[in-house]
Amino acid sequence: MSTRKKISIIGAGNIGGELANLCAQKELGDVVLFDIPAKADYAKGKALDLEQNGAVLGYDVKITGTSDWKDCAGSDVLIVTAGVPRKPGQSRDDLVAINVPIIRSVADGAKEHCPDAFVVVISNPLDAMVYELQRRTGFKKEKVVGMAGVLDSARFSLFLARETGFNIKDIRAMVLGGHGDDMVPILSATTVNGLPISSFVAKDKLDAIIARTRVGGGEIVKLMGTSAYYAPASSAVAMAEAYLFDQKRVLPGAAFLDGQYGYKDMYIGVPMVIGGNGVEKIIELELTADEKAMLAKSAASVQGVVDVVKNTA
Ligand SMILES: NC(=O)c1ccc[n+]([C@@H]2O[C@H](COP(=O)([O-])OP(=O)(O)OC[C@H]3O[C@@H](n4cnc5c(N)ncnc54)[C@H](O)[C@@H]3O)[C@@H](O)[C@H]2O)c1
Fold it and tell me: Considering only CA atoms, which of 167, 142, 116 is closest in space to residue 273?
Protein backbone atom coordinates (compact mmCIF):
# COMPACT_ATOMS: atom_id res chain seq x y z
CA MET A 1 0.00 0.00 0.00
CA SER A 2 1.22 3.48 -0.85
CA THR A 3 2.34 5.62 2.07
CA ARG A 4 2.05 8.74 -0.05
CA LYS A 5 -0.34 11.43 1.15
CA LYS A 6 -3.75 11.48 -0.46
CA ILE A 7 -5.62 14.65 -1.33
CA SER A 8 -9.22 14.40 -2.47
CA ILE A 9 -10.78 17.32 -4.26
CA ILE A 10 -14.56 17.38 -4.18
CA GLY A 11 -15.87 19.10 -7.31
CA ALA A 12 -13.82 18.78 -10.49
CA GLY A 13 -14.81 22.15 -11.94
CA ASN A 14 -12.71 25.28 -12.36
CA ILE A 15 -11.26 25.47 -8.86
CA GLY A 16 -11.07 21.68 -8.56
CA GLY A 17 -9.02 21.39 -11.76
CA GLU A 18 -6.58 24.09 -10.69
CA LEU A 19 -6.30 22.52 -7.23
CA ALA A 20 -5.41 19.17 -8.77
CA ASN A 21 -2.90 20.90 -11.02
CA LEU A 22 -1.17 22.62 -8.08
CA CYS A 23 -1.21 19.52 -5.84
CA ALA A 24 0.34 17.51 -8.68
CA GLN A 25 2.98 20.09 -9.60
CA LYS A 26 3.98 20.40 -5.94
CA GLU A 27 3.85 16.58 -5.59
CA LEU A 28 1.86 16.93 -2.36
CA GLY A 29 0.53 13.41 -2.78
CA ASP A 30 -1.81 11.36 -4.92
CA VAL A 31 -4.88 13.27 -6.02
CA VAL A 32 -8.50 12.17 -6.35
CA LEU A 33 -10.82 14.41 -8.35
CA PHE A 34 -14.40 13.62 -7.31
CA ASP A 35 -17.59 14.88 -8.95
CA ILE A 36 -21.24 13.80 -9.32
CA PRO A 37 -21.99 10.74 -11.51
CA ALA A 38 -23.03 12.95 -14.44
CA LYS A 39 -19.55 14.52 -14.37
CA ALA A 40 -17.58 11.33 -13.63
CA ASP A 41 -16.15 11.09 -17.14
CA TYR A 42 -15.29 14.77 -17.09
CA ALA A 43 -13.40 14.23 -13.82
CA LYS A 44 -11.65 11.18 -15.30
CA GLY A 45 -10.66 13.13 -18.40
CA LYS A 46 -9.28 16.02 -16.37
CA ALA A 47 -7.35 13.59 -14.17
CA LEU A 48 -5.84 11.87 -17.20
CA ASP A 49 -4.88 15.18 -18.81
CA LEU A 50 -3.16 16.24 -15.57
CA GLU A 51 -1.37 12.89 -15.21
CA GLN A 52 -0.08 13.24 -18.77
CA ASN A 53 1.07 16.77 -17.94
CA GLY A 54 3.46 15.19 -15.44
CA ALA A 55 5.40 13.63 -18.31
CA VAL A 56 6.12 17.11 -19.65
CA LEU A 57 6.58 18.97 -16.38
CA GLY A 58 8.39 16.18 -14.55
CA TYR A 59 6.10 15.29 -11.66
CA ASP A 60 4.82 11.81 -10.89
CA VAL A 61 1.69 11.45 -8.80
CA LYS A 62 -1.39 9.36 -9.35
CA ILE A 63 -4.46 11.38 -10.29
CA THR A 64 -7.83 9.63 -10.34
CA GLY A 65 -11.16 10.96 -11.56
CA THR A 66 -14.22 9.40 -9.92
CA SER A 67 -17.77 9.76 -8.66
CA ASP A 68 -17.34 6.98 -6.10
CA TRP A 69 -16.64 8.14 -2.54
CA LYS A 70 -14.82 4.87 -1.89
CA ASP A 71 -11.95 6.23 -4.01
CA CYS A 72 -11.56 9.07 -1.50
CA ALA A 73 -11.21 6.67 1.44
CA GLY A 74 -8.27 7.37 3.71
CA SER A 75 -7.69 10.91 2.43
CA ASP A 76 -5.29 13.06 4.43
CA VAL A 77 -6.79 16.25 3.04
CA LEU A 78 -10.18 16.97 1.55
CA ILE A 79 -10.73 20.21 -0.34
CA VAL A 80 -14.37 20.96 -1.01
CA THR A 81 -15.31 23.02 -4.06
CA ALA A 82 -18.62 21.30 -4.79
CA GLY A 83 -21.41 23.70 -5.58
CA VAL A 84 -22.32 26.34 -8.07
CA PRO A 85 -20.32 29.53 -8.44
CA ARG A 86 -21.81 33.01 -8.71
CA LYS A 87 -23.11 34.49 -11.92
CA PRO A 88 -22.96 38.23 -12.55
CA GLY A 89 -25.31 40.10 -10.21
CA GLN A 90 -25.56 37.24 -7.68
CA SER A 91 -24.31 37.56 -4.11
CA ARG A 92 -22.57 34.64 -2.42
CA ASP A 93 -25.64 34.30 -0.21
CA ASP A 94 -27.87 33.77 -3.27
CA LEU A 95 -26.18 30.38 -3.59
CA VAL A 96 -27.57 29.00 -0.31
CA ALA A 97 -30.57 27.12 -1.68
CA ILE A 98 -28.53 25.28 -4.31
CA ASN A 99 -25.37 24.69 -2.32
CA VAL A 100 -26.84 23.52 1.02
CA PRO A 101 -28.02 20.10 -0.29
CA ILE A 102 -24.70 19.76 -2.11
CA ILE A 103 -22.60 20.46 0.98
CA ARG A 104 -24.75 18.05 2.99
CA SER A 105 -24.18 15.24 0.52
CA VAL A 106 -20.44 16.01 0.60
CA ALA A 107 -20.52 15.98 4.40
CA ASP A 108 -22.17 12.55 4.39
CA GLY A 109 -19.57 11.14 1.99
CA ALA A 110 -16.72 12.67 3.97
CA LYS A 111 -18.06 11.36 7.27
CA GLU A 112 -18.26 7.82 5.96
CA HIS A 113 -15.05 7.66 3.95
CA CYS A 114 -12.61 10.36 5.14
CA PRO A 115 -13.04 10.63 8.92
CA ASP A 116 -9.39 11.54 9.52
CA ALA A 117 -8.99 14.20 6.85
CA PHE A 118 -8.14 17.86 7.32
CA VAL A 119 -10.98 19.56 5.46
CA VAL A 120 -10.70 22.88 3.63
CA VAL A 121 -14.05 24.18 2.41
CA ILE A 122 -14.15 26.62 -0.50
CA SER A 123 -17.82 26.42 -1.58
CA ASN A 124 -19.90 29.57 -1.09
CA PRO A 125 -21.43 31.11 0.91
CA LEU A 126 -18.21 30.13 2.60
CA ASP A 127 -18.69 30.78 6.30
CA ALA A 128 -22.11 29.10 6.34
CA MET A 129 -20.99 26.14 4.20
CA VAL A 130 -18.00 25.34 6.41
CA TYR A 131 -20.26 25.63 9.48
CA GLU A 132 -22.76 23.21 7.94
CA LEU A 133 -20.09 20.70 6.88
CA GLN A 134 -18.59 20.61 10.37
CA ARG A 135 -22.03 20.40 12.03
CA ARG A 136 -23.18 17.54 9.81
CA THR A 137 -19.97 15.50 9.95
CA GLY A 138 -19.28 16.13 13.64
CA PHE A 139 -15.58 16.27 12.71
CA LYS A 140 -13.27 17.95 15.20
CA LYS A 141 -13.54 21.71 14.75
CA GLU A 142 -9.78 22.08 14.43
CA LYS A 143 -9.85 19.73 11.44
CA VAL A 144 -12.39 21.76 9.42
CA VAL A 145 -11.59 25.22 8.05
CA GLY A 146 -12.84 27.54 5.35
CA MET A 147 -10.70 29.25 2.73
CA ALA A 148 -11.41 32.94 2.26
CA GLY A 149 -8.99 35.10 4.24
CA VAL A 150 -5.89 34.02 2.33
CA LEU A 151 -7.61 34.96 -0.92
CA ASP A 152 -9.13 38.21 0.33
CA SER A 153 -5.75 39.22 1.79
CA ALA A 154 -4.04 38.31 -1.50
CA ARG A 155 -6.43 40.60 -3.38
CA PHE A 156 -5.77 43.41 -0.88
CA SER A 157 -2.00 42.80 -1.24
CA LEU A 158 -2.11 42.99 -5.02
CA PHE A 159 -3.96 46.29 -5.06
CA LEU A 160 -1.55 47.73 -2.47
CA ALA A 161 1.48 46.49 -4.42
CA ARG A 162 0.20 48.12 -7.60
CA GLU A 163 -0.61 51.37 -5.79
CA THR A 164 2.78 51.63 -4.03
CA GLY A 165 4.85 50.16 -6.86
CA PHE A 166 6.51 47.81 -4.33
CA ASN A 167 7.07 44.12 -4.87
CA ILE A 168 4.03 42.11 -3.84
CA LYS A 169 6.29 39.86 -1.74
CA ASP A 170 6.89 42.77 0.62
CA ILE A 171 3.23 43.51 1.23
CA ARG A 172 1.67 41.88 4.30
CA ALA A 173 -2.09 42.25 4.37
CA MET A 174 -4.72 40.84 6.65
CA VAL A 175 -8.44 40.64 5.96
CA LEU A 176 -10.78 39.16 8.54
CA GLY A 177 -14.50 38.60 8.99
CA GLY A 178 -16.94 36.80 6.75
CA HIS A 179 -16.19 36.15 3.10
CA GLY A 180 -18.67 38.74 2.01
CA ASP A 181 -18.79 42.31 0.94
CA ASP A 182 -18.40 43.44 4.55
CA MET A 183 -15.10 41.65 5.20
CA VAL A 184 -12.77 43.51 7.59
CA PRO A 185 -9.33 44.70 6.46
CA ILE A 186 -7.03 45.05 9.48
CA LEU A 187 -4.79 48.04 8.79
CA SER A 188 -2.62 47.54 11.89
CA ALA A 189 -1.64 44.16 10.40
CA THR A 190 -1.19 45.50 6.86
CA THR A 191 2.40 46.57 6.25
CA VAL A 192 5.24 46.87 3.79
CA ASN A 193 7.61 44.44 5.46
CA GLY A 194 6.57 45.70 8.88
CA LEU A 195 6.34 49.39 7.97
CA PRO A 196 2.83 50.85 8.37
CA ILE A 197 0.91 50.93 5.11
CA SER A 198 -0.41 54.40 6.01
CA SER A 199 3.13 55.77 5.47
CA PHE A 200 2.87 54.84 1.81
CA VAL A 201 -0.78 55.12 0.79
CA ALA A 202 -2.97 58.16 1.42
CA LYS A 203 -6.25 57.60 3.25
CA ASP A 204 -8.54 58.23 0.27
CA LYS A 205 -6.52 55.78 -1.87
CA LEU A 206 -6.54 53.21 0.94
CA ASP A 207 -10.31 53.54 1.30
CA ALA A 208 -10.74 53.00 -2.44
CA ILE A 209 -8.49 49.92 -2.32
CA ILE A 210 -10.45 48.50 0.63
CA ALA A 211 -13.69 49.06 -1.27
CA ARG A 212 -12.24 47.27 -4.31
CA THR A 213 -10.99 44.37 -2.15
CA ARG A 214 -14.45 43.90 -0.63
CA VAL A 215 -15.94 43.33 -4.07
CA GLY A 216 -12.78 41.70 -5.46
CA GLY A 217 -14.57 38.42 -6.20
CA GLY A 218 -17.51 40.20 -7.84
CA GLU A 219 -15.15 42.18 -10.10
CA ILE A 220 -13.91 38.90 -11.57
CA VAL A 221 -17.40 37.38 -11.79
CA LYS A 222 -18.49 40.44 -13.80
CA LEU A 223 -15.55 40.06 -16.18
CA MET A 224 -15.60 36.27 -16.64
CA GLY A 225 -19.23 35.38 -16.01
CA THR A 226 -18.07 32.95 -13.31
CA SER A 227 -15.92 32.90 -10.16
CA ALA A 228 -12.17 33.24 -9.92
CA TYR A 229 -10.25 29.99 -9.66
CA TYR A 230 -6.46 30.38 -9.84
CA ALA A 231 -5.97 32.42 -6.65
CA PRO A 232 -8.74 30.56 -4.77
CA ALA A 233 -7.03 27.25 -5.54
CA SER A 234 -3.56 28.50 -4.49
CA SER A 235 -5.02 29.88 -1.27
CA ALA A 236 -6.56 26.53 -0.31
CA VAL A 237 -3.34 24.71 -1.21
CA ALA A 238 -1.39 27.01 1.14
CA MET A 239 -3.72 25.90 3.95
CA ALA A 240 -3.42 22.22 2.97
CA GLU A 241 0.40 22.42 2.83
CA ALA A 242 0.51 24.05 6.28
CA TYR A 243 -1.31 20.97 7.61
CA LEU A 244 0.53 18.32 5.59
CA PHE A 245 3.99 19.68 6.46
CA ASP A 246 3.18 20.89 10.00
CA GLN A 247 4.30 24.36 8.95
CA LYS A 248 2.69 26.33 11.84
CA ARG A 249 1.73 29.02 9.35
CA VAL A 250 -0.24 32.05 10.44
CA LEU A 251 -3.03 32.29 7.90
CA PRO A 252 -6.37 34.05 7.89
CA GLY A 253 -9.35 31.82 7.21
CA ALA A 254 -12.70 30.72 8.54
CA ALA A 255 -12.20 28.95 11.88
CA PHE A 256 -14.68 27.87 14.52
CA LEU A 257 -14.96 30.48 17.25
CA ASP A 258 -15.75 29.46 20.78
CA GLY A 259 -15.65 32.83 22.50
CA GLN A 260 -12.70 34.35 20.63
CA TYR A 261 -13.36 37.94 19.54
CA GLY A 262 -16.58 37.67 21.57
CA TYR A 263 -18.25 35.18 19.18
CA LYS A 264 -19.40 31.64 19.84
CA ASP A 265 -20.66 28.76 17.70
CA MET A 266 -19.73 30.33 14.41
CA TYR A 267 -17.15 30.08 11.63
CA ILE A 268 -15.71 33.40 10.55
CA GLY A 269 -12.40 34.68 9.17
CA VAL A 270 -9.67 35.12 11.79
CA PRO A 271 -5.90 34.61 11.83
CA MET A 272 -5.05 31.06 12.88
CA VAL A 273 -2.01 28.83 13.18
CA ILE A 274 -2.26 25.78 10.94
CA GLY A 275 0.04 22.86 11.63
CA GLY A 276 -0.04 19.09 11.74
CA ASN A 277 -2.92 19.08 14.21
CA GLY A 278 -5.05 21.35 12.06
CA VAL A 279 -6.01 24.67 13.63
CA GLU A 280 -3.55 24.79 16.52
CA LYS A 281 -4.40 28.28 17.69
CA ILE A 282 -6.65 31.19 16.90
CA ILE A 283 -4.82 34.47 17.18
CA GLU A 284 -6.76 37.25 18.85
CA LEU A 285 -5.64 40.64 17.59
CA GLU A 286 -6.29 43.91 19.39
CA LEU A 287 -8.93 45.52 17.22
CA THR A 288 -9.76 49.21 17.02
CA ALA A 289 -13.32 50.30 17.81
CA ASP A 290 -13.95 50.68 14.07
CA GLU A 291 -12.62 47.21 13.31
CA LYS A 292 -14.74 45.74 16.10
CA ALA A 293 -17.82 47.42 14.64
CA MET A 294 -17.00 46.12 11.14
CA LEU A 295 -16.46 42.61 12.52
CA ALA A 296 -19.80 42.78 14.35
CA LYS A 297 -21.55 43.75 11.10
CA SER A 298 -19.81 40.99 9.21
CA ALA A 299 -20.59 38.42 11.93
CA ALA A 300 -24.26 39.45 11.89
CA SER A 301 -24.49 38.85 8.16
CA VAL A 302 -22.71 35.45 8.47
CA GLN A 303 -25.12 34.50 11.27
CA GLY A 304 -28.06 35.52 9.08
CA VAL A 305 -26.94 33.09 6.35
CA VAL A 306 -26.22 30.33 8.88
CA ASP A 307 -29.77 30.76 10.23
CA VAL A 308 -31.15 30.34 6.70
CA VAL A 309 -29.00 27.20 6.27
CA LYS A 310 -30.22 25.77 9.59
CA ASN A 311 -33.82 26.32 8.47
CA THR A 312 -33.24 24.69 5.08
CA ALA A 313 -34.78 21.21 5.15
N1 LIG B 1 -14.08 30.65 -0.78
C2 LIG B 1 -13.71 31.41 -1.80
O3 LIG B 1 -12.93 32.34 -1.63
C4 LIG B 1 -14.23 31.12 -3.18
C5 LIG B 1 -13.67 31.74 -4.31
C6 LIG B 1 -14.16 31.43 -5.57
C7 LIG B 1 -15.22 30.53 -5.70
N8 LIG B 1 -15.77 29.96 -4.59
C9 LIG B 1 -16.87 28.99 -4.65
O10 LIG B 1 -16.33 27.70 -4.95
C11 LIG B 1 -17.35 26.88 -5.54
C12 LIG B 1 -16.81 26.18 -6.79
O13 LIG B 1 -16.49 27.11 -7.78
P14 LIG B 1 -16.00 26.64 -9.25
O15 LIG B 1 -15.70 27.88 -10.00
O16 LIG B 1 -14.99 25.56 -9.15
O17 LIG B 1 -17.37 26.02 -9.79
P18 LIG B 1 -17.55 24.94 -10.97
O19 LIG B 1 -19.00 25.00 -11.37
O20 LIG B 1 -16.53 25.12 -12.02
O21 LIG B 1 -17.27 23.54 -10.24
C22 LIG B 1 -18.08 23.06 -9.21
C23 LIG B 1 -18.14 21.55 -9.38
O24 LIG B 1 -18.86 20.99 -8.25
C25 LIG B 1 -19.52 19.86 -8.75
N26 LIG B 1 -20.54 19.37 -7.84
C27 LIG B 1 -21.83 19.75 -7.70
N28 LIG B 1 -22.45 19.01 -6.76
C29 LIG B 1 -21.54 18.14 -6.30
C30 LIG B 1 -21.58 17.11 -5.32
N31 LIG B 1 -22.68 16.85 -4.62
N32 LIG B 1 -20.45 16.40 -5.10
C33 LIG B 1 -19.33 16.65 -5.80
N34 LIG B 1 -19.24 17.62 -6.73
C35 LIG B 1 -20.33 18.35 -6.97
C36 LIG B 1 -20.10 20.33 -10.08
O37 LIG B 1 -20.50 19.24 -10.90
C38 LIG B 1 -18.91 21.10 -10.64
O39 LIG B 1 -18.08 20.30 -11.45
C40 LIG B 1 -18.54 27.83 -5.78
O41 LIG B 1 -19.47 27.68 -4.74
C42 LIG B 1 -17.88 29.21 -5.73
O43 LIG B 1 -18.80 30.22 -5.37
C44 LIG B 1 -15.29 30.24 -3.34
Answer: 142
